[in-house]
């Protein structure tokens, strides 16, 4: 994970005056310190690119707020500012959930909606998230108004929306999701109240109340009924909602200073995202569905998962700090509200880099190969089976030049394409 610091701190890093703090394994954290004195000088203000599901504010900044809760009333003004940012971040999570589950009116419950998946692709979803933030798009009962969002997209899209609104099975799903979103929203309100309390006991009571509501919402989002006869695209959108709620629960544990719990939950969530992504890829049945899945899954695994890992690294690091270091962190100025570095990466008019990458790969590959390449992104060690097969078949058929000695230099595209080329040759031999 590459972090972006303010101009002043970055200038200090470039000159050698400051350095980025690293954990025991040498992994960079989102904080800088003075090389000579060892004093902390500032937090990162952004990551290089905005993730799809994980708010950038999550991580060391929340860890700092958790630290401030235990250092006395002198820090309460700064703590309150940090809480305001945390509440703003949680509202962004609410927005993302509404956008994600709102698109399920096009995906539907069955697999017949794949022809219109391009209308709700990664780029469109990022744009809707910004539209809701700027109050250009309304959220009602946890769903965006798709007719408003997709105005002008054509009669087929409008027909699909009307048809799904009358589908009994989808109505059942929508009822579950709307109820769950309501619990999520009430939990965030409860958190906002808790963040304003000065009494530790009262604050923890409200934190626990909010966690209870979120656990109930999460159980609904994980309800097997929501995944019954649902396409791979539909499953992804439902799971993304559950992953966001899972993060929110973890945020509360961090605000309560439960570092061991936070670390364990983040580890489990990262594993759950990887395992579920592979299951979703295996359920993919056609090109249109892969067109939808590839950019979104890629962004999650190249942007969101590294940030979750960084969050876990930061929590593991902060729990080993000395009391004096914790006091120093508590006094550290919080990052600014907005970052030009972040906004440069969120222009909804520009196609996301993942979508551009997929279009390039699609010109040089085919469905089976592309699906394997997506598996490699999610779980790189899956390449080893393909490498071994290509090596054996290349040598057996006299194509020794296609059996490189150093596979690290061979891109996923080449490995997957060669694998399916030799598979086809073997099939017709």
Number of domains: 3
Please give the share of residues in helix.
Answer: 55-70%
Structural class: mainly alpha
General form: globular
SSE order, one letter for each helix or strand: EHEEEEHHHHEEHHHHHHHHHHHHH
Task: Report the strand count.
Answer: 7
Share in β-strands? 5-15%
Low-pLDDT windows of residues: 70-79, 338-345
- Count every helix, treating DSSP H or I runs of 4 or more residues as helices: 18
Largest sheet, if any? 3 strands, antiparallel
Tell me the Rg in angstroms. Answer: 23 Å
- Which whole number gives the mean pLDDT? 84
Distance between the termini: 47 Å
Q: Numbering strands along the chain, what is their spatial order in the largest sheet?
A: 2-3-4
Question: Could you write a compact summary of the structure shown?
Answer:
By secondary structure, this protein is mostly helical. 64% of the residues lie in helices and 6% in strands. Helix 12 (287-318) crosses helix 15 and helix 12 packs parallel to helix 16 (367-378).
